[in-house]
Amino acid sequence: QMQLVESGGGLVQAGGSLRLSCAASGRTFSDYTMGWFRQAPGKEREFVAAISWSGGSTYYADSVKGRFSISRDNAKNTVYLQMNNLKPEDTAVYYCAAGLSKSLLGPWDFWGQGTQVTVSS
Q: Fewer beta carbons under 10 A from the terminal one: N or C of the chain?
């Protein structure tokens, strides 16, 4: 089992920035593709970004491309999501996920508990 713990969420004004972190334990972190997802109230969970095991490949949802950046530090067993120019529609619970598949599209084997991001207008 892999444990994933997100942190860094909070309340920010539109146009501001936040950096989310997801600390992993229990498995060899560098074996896993990592992803970020989000779920807004009343909506389905949606893909945000993914990064390959080495960090050499990334993939983003169109809605966040150019504003969000995913990165990882395999020495620290941590994946990050830098979110810039935040918009009210980015308000959601953000989840990190880990998958053994090399595909940046999943499937995803483990999930964190989520961290709330609220963007005020």
A: N
